[in-house]
Write a structure and sequence with these properties.
Elements (H helix, E strand, L loop, with lengths): L3 H12 L10 H26 L6 H36 L5 H4 L4 H20 L19 E6 L4 E4 L5 E4 L4 E5 H10 L2 E3 L3
């Protein structure tokens, strides 16, 4: 049936749970574009015949045209949804994505992510005075300025604002400023200990 390949790409994104990014399906995208090209070429041939007097082809031409428009909408929805998910990953993981996520992205998506990351960094530097304003700092409004955290893996030395250096070793617990460790929590280095 016409349009199945493009619709399957959208269904695959819908099945991905929790906004996760499934692998980029370049082959599926290529097949959908080939299907669209074949429909377009058949329509062009039938339009020439319809102009010559075969009015019975008009409904078939319209049907194929509707299939082309549906395929186009599906492919654009697939690509746009992936970009929205990649944008959300910037806020969730910070400026460096884990390799497992980058592996699921196409080269163009990685390039888009890098441009988005630079654009966001430029904007954050432009607001908030000399030091800028880190918009990714408090995703949720904090209830307290300091939190207790447990280190999930060896990280090494970590410096806080007053110049104190803390050694983050696996299973060590610390009482740190929330804004300094929120990024490490998102990266999976620290875990917030709830009392």
């Amino acid at each position: 049936m016409a349009g199945e390949r493009a619709a399957e790409l959208v269904r695959e994104l819908q099945r991905a749970s929790g906004g996760q990014l499934p692998p980029f399906r370049a082959e599926g995208l290529r097949q959908a574009l080939e299907e669209m090209r074949a429909l377009y070429e058949r329509n062009q041939a039938d339009v020439s015949e319809a102009k010559a007097g075969r009015s019975d082809l008009i409904f078939l031409i319209r049907f194929r045209h509707c299939c082309l428009l549906r395929d186009q909408r599906c492919l654009l929805a697939y690509l746009y949804d992936r970009l929205l998910r990649i944008r959300a990953l910037r806020w969730e993981y910070g400026s460096v994505l884990p390799n497992t996520i980058q592996f699921h992205m196409s080269a163009e998506e990685v390039e888009w992510f890098n441009r988005y990351k630079k654009s966001l960094a430029t904007y954050m530097r432009s607001v908030g005075g000399e030091e800028g304003l880190d918009l990714t700092q408090d995703i949720k409004p904090p209830k307290s300025l300091y939190i207790e955290v447990r280190c999930l893996r060896d990280y090494g030395e970590f410096e806080i604002d007053d110049g104190t250096t803390i050694l983050l070793k696996k299973n060590s617990q610390h009482f740190l400023p929330r804004w300094k460790c929120e990024q490490l929590i998102r990266q999976g280095v620290l875990e917030h200990i709830l009392s």
